[in-house]
User: What shape does this take?
Amino acid sequence: MSVRTATYDILQADSPVSTEISTRLYLDFAPQGTALPHIVFFYNMIEDTYTKDNNSLTDKYSVNLEIYHNSPAEAEALGLKCRTALQGYRGTINGVVVKGSRLVDERHDYEPELDAMYEQEYELIIDR
Assistant: This one.
């Protein structure tokens, strides 16, 4: 199952997030000239988890969000909406079983050409 699908679908299914960004949620990079606000996300597998018989049942991923907005305050506010959607999420969304999600880190950043960026990192545990 796909952490990409889970991340995208969780954020798009959350009305406060999707109302603000519409469909401007991108994997790896946003096209040049993309309107604000928008979110770029990317992920890495941290580890697979093992049972006593070494069969991996779940995978643990690091999912990073880069939240771009018109001002630092607006970027942080959208970040809070993303946190509400992702923090503690458990369930099945479009066939992907998410066992858990937690916020690991968040920070402000500044991109002069884009005004404001807010970054968040989550850990998601996904069934294989």
In short: The longest helix spans residues 72-86.
